[in-house]
Each structure stands twice: as structure tokens, then as C-alpha cells.
Amino acid sequence: MKKLLTIAALTASTFTAQAEVRINGFANLIGGITSSDESLYGYQDKISFSEESLFAIQVSGDINDKMTATGQIVARADNDYKAEFEWAYITYAANDNLSISAGRLRLPLFKYSASLDVGYSYHWVNAPKSVYDVPFNNIEGLRVDYSNYSGDWEYNLQFAAGNYYTETEEFSLEGEDVLAITAEAQNEGFKVRAVAGRNKSTFIVPALEPVFAGIEPFISAELLQDLRHKDSTGIFLGLGLEYDAYDWFISSEVTSIDSESSFLQEDIAYYVTAGMRLGKFTPSLTYEAKESDDTMKFADQVSQLPASLQGAIAVLGDVFADDEETLTLGLRYDMDTNVALKGDISKHSDNLNKSNDATLIRVGVNYVF
Amino acid sequence: MKIKTFSKNLTGIVIGCSISLFSLAEVVVIVHPSNDAALDEKAVQRIFLGKEKKFSNGKEVLPVNQVPSSGARSSFDTDTLGRSSTQIAAYWSKLVFTGKGIPPKELDNDAAVLAIVADNQNAIGYVDSASVSGAVKAISLN
Fold this sequence. Notes:
By secondary structure, chain A is mainly β. Chain A has helices spanning 2-15, 129-132, 209-215, 221-227, 299-302, 307-319; strands at residues 21-34, 54-62, 67-76, 82-93, 98-106, 138-150, 153-167, 172-187, 190-204, 232-244, 248-259, 267-276, 281-292, 323-336, 339-350, 358-368. Chain A contains 6 helices and 16 strands. Chain B has a 5-stranded mixed beta sheet, sandwiched between helices. The radius of gyration of chain B is 17 Å and the shape is globular.
């Protein structure tokens, strides 16, 4: 009788799905230092823990059988550990394969977009910035997730739509009509992923306004419209491949971001990473690069202008142009099933400005609960 | 000197690994005796990785895991799921923090898993082959 009661209690306490509130959290404490007089990702030649560290709590509760509410509060070191609701959404699970989420949520641009802040989920100290460092990651809108399998292939499809707005000291960026479609398929250790997205964005950089004001009287309204990044249609494309044989793995992503009417050039970014799993240790090597298209945009019109104007327009294009590469040697050590220690060393080269070259050493602790 | 300490540590790690390798238990998957679903390794993997929520007979599935410190857990993760426990944890951290899944509940030991599985028609778990009792149905995956 007593045994039966214990079983009943255990069953009840373990499987009450209704009204259950789950609290999970994660933390990344990352410190970095560059070699003398250099700067990379905000780090300088004095050790700092305030560039990439973060603490987060996620609370999710079941509203009913089909609906779940999720909120994620993140405190980032580079935002003075101010706690903000980065995600807040409600998910409706139509069936085992299809779910719809609405609210503020992560836009599935990259392979690691969803778990980008959860350092424990990947082997790097942080995801390769050349690819992952985009001005916005979250949208206010909805996302549809579909997953299923056919034979040995597992696949999932995601569709997302919404808006975003982001502002920093240097710029403001507003996006409307964001649409993204993602398809991912996996067979054993092989995984392939493709994404296509578009939006209409307005990008304002106060520091560049004098340049626009200076050229405005001398160029056609049409060219000004082309250069101004206002309600500009942007296209995002991405492809990812991975092979994971457990003892070793290799993985890569390549992305392209292009805006139709904008002074910004098309950016192509990619990384290739490979590593080995030796017991609790995962050493890895990552090469990443980002390059802006260096052919002049709207060349037909611009080339007819006087040299001084051409120069001013070239300045606009150059401000955000990139041509850089980074090689990172990293090590992950699994301390426990919820704690990982990491360290890496990166050699960064900026082919447009050699004074930005830098060597960075980082150490980190990832924790999940 | 440093090299010496390092290689000493390395030997320690290697020995540690081989000891845990020998102490790994042989585990069997168990379900309720009335459960007539067809289960192979792939199906069990999908269930324990949250990719499949129903048995082949259409009934809801309720996987129960064991705590990471149990011997059965590391054998199950390595042999059946084909990943180390930390990798499985990393996999779940991805799903949990994207609202895409909730990992199976973790029970303390074989006895707790046996009790749940014997009691619940939807449950599926795993225990050391030596612990299997007549109250549950053991599944051979091969």
C-alpha cells in the first residue's frame, strides 16, 4: 500500500503538465584581452569581462494543452547588465509537427540564431562575428515551425514575419515586412540548411547626414533616392552545411546581405569550423571572413559626376565596407552536463585598415540550468 | 617539469576514462507490459531527443530519463543515443531556450524508472539489464 502511494505521488509530481511553470537559465562569463594597443570586439589590452558576458532567465508556462507562454529576460554586460525582455511570445502547438509562435522572438537567420546567447550549446567561446554580428536578431511578429521526417531524413521548415527597430549611438535601423523562410534537413551526421529573407528597411546614420546634405544639391533626386537607405528592399540569403561524425565535425555557413537602394555594398560572410571530441575536450579551428563588394554601386550615374562628388559618394560606401578575416583556435572543456569552460585565441586581419589587426585571447564559463 | 605534470594528468584522464568504460552498465529499454508498439533504436533515439511524441501505435509517449550521475544514463547516451551526456545536454539546451522542447524528466535510479514504467502505459525508460523486473516489458533494440 505504501509503495503504491509512493508511485502515485511520484507519478503526480513528475507528470503534472498542466499549469506547470518552468524556470531555466543560462549564463556566459567571458573575459578577453588583446595584445598591446590593439582592439577587437570591444576588447583592449586590459582584461575585460564586460563585452560578451550575459545572464539570462527563461520562464515558460503552459496556458493549456496547446499553448505555452515564454519570456526570456537577458542582462548583457555591454548594456550595463540591464535586464530586458528580449523574447516574449506565445506558442500554439497545432499538433506534434506544427507550432505557431507570436510575440517578440528570434528571427531564424542563422544555424545558431535560436541558441546564439546560450554559449553552452556550441563549441565556440562565441559564434563567429563575421557572420553572426548583424544589427538585429529579434522581431516582433510570428513564426511558424514545422518538423517531420521521411525515412532517415529529418527536416524542419520555419517561416517568420514581422518588424524590428533598433537604435545605437551610431545609427538607427527600422525594418518592416520582414519575411524569412528556412529549411533544414538532417540525415545521421549530415545537415544542410538554407534560408532566404527580405525586408524593407530604413537605415539612418547621423554622422553621415552632412555628407548627404553636401551632395544633395548636385545630384539627381533619383540617385539620392538610390543612395539613401530608405524603405530599401534588402535580401538575405544563407546556406549551411555540417557533418558530425561524433569524434570529429566540420561545419560551415555562408551568408549574403544586399540592399537595393542603399549606399551600403553587398556583404558576403562565411566561416568554416572543424573540431574533434576527445573525451571532455573539444579543440576546434575556425576560419571566418567578411567582404563587401568593392565595385561601385550605381556606377552608370556616379561616373558621370565630377570627381569631388564621386569621392564623397565613395566615402559613403566605404564607411561600412569590410574586408576582414579571422582565424580562431579554441578549446571547450565539459566540466559537467551543465557547465563548460572555454578558451580561444583569435588572429584578426583587416585588409582595408591594417591598424585594426589584432590578436585576442578569451576565456569563458558557460552555465545552464 | 610542466610537460611532466601535463602527461601525468593525461594519464589520469585516460585511466579515468577506461575505468568508467568498464563500469558502464548494459542497459535495456523498458515499457509498460501492455505496450505493443514497434520500437527500434532509431525510434528510441527520436523519442529521447524529443523528435517523436507518439509510439508507432499512435499512443502518446512519455520518456523518463535518469540523472546524469547514474551509470545507466551514460551507457544509454553513449550506446543508444550515440552522443556523450554533455552533448545531449548541449542539444537540449538549444531546444529548451528556443521553446522547442522540454527534456524528459530525470529520475534518480533504476527503481524509480521501473516504478513509473510499470505504472504508466505511456512511459518508456531504460534501466540496467540486471534490474529488469516482470512488471515491465524489456525491449531488445537489435
